[in-house]
TrEMBL record:
Record InterPro entries: Abi_system_AbiD/AbiF-like
Source species: Xylanibacter brevis
Phylogenetic classification of the source organism: Bacteria, Pseudomonadati, Bacteroidota, Bacteroidia, Bacteroidales
Listed name of the protein: Abi family protein
Amino acid sequence: MQYTKQAIDFSDQLSLLKQRGLIIDDEDKALRCLRSISYFRLTNYLVPMESDSDTHAFRPNSHLHTAIALYNFDRKLRSLVFTSIQDIEVALRTRIIHYFSLAHGPFWFMRNDLFINESIHQTCINNIASEVNRSKEEFISEYRRNYTSPEFPPAWKTLEVVSFGTLSKLFCNFKNVKVKKQVARDFNLPQYTYLESWIKCAVVLRNACAHHARIWNKRFPTMPTMPQRLPESWVSTNSFRPNKLYHQLCYLAYMEQSIVPNSDFTEALVKLVKDNPDIQTRSMGFPLGNWQDEPLWSTRC
């Protein structure tokens, strides 16, 4: 079937929503909203009010302001999550560089023999080359001015400019389990496999946040390992929807405990949810009951 639909003006988009039964309390405000948030971005937050997924007709008493409130909640949540992932990414980068370089020298990331899968490692090297060549950082330029070999600067310079995804692949593909355990212990994790699982998930979550994608009711393709017990404040893992956001928030909050001594991530998250009582936490995979009373959420770092 050939696609034949044409672009329509903002006012026509608004008319279409009204035809489908959506209540518009303030049309001027609604038009300003459509000019700032694309129609199809906003429809993500309208779907819960639909009575028919084929015709996109809305249930009675469905208001546009409900979707806008949900969009604003998701935007604040995304900002909070992205800030936490930044903390984790910087800390992970620092600890990988430190322990791996002490064990295997400044150019360990270039050595194919130190990695499990040669093909994955070569992909990482190709990505590193692209990222280093694109970098305008002075410490990269300084290396190029002063040295011709090796091709890349040492790890403490090179790995500061590679993507979180490349860093994650380097860690997970590394052969030396001993140094991986050292990094994991710095995050108060008893097994390095927990850290591997969590950073793979964090890369996906980070990319969603960076592209302003919906996260509040998203089903994530990669689900984090959820240990029953951990050394620091943690949660009960008996009642979960493992592909939803709550899992992701749990490992972020746990890792923050070893990074920022007075992190306000948990407090800010609890407050955001409390300030938006109309948002259904079950859509994000939160457990029933007083989830905020779990040690992870109730204990300040």
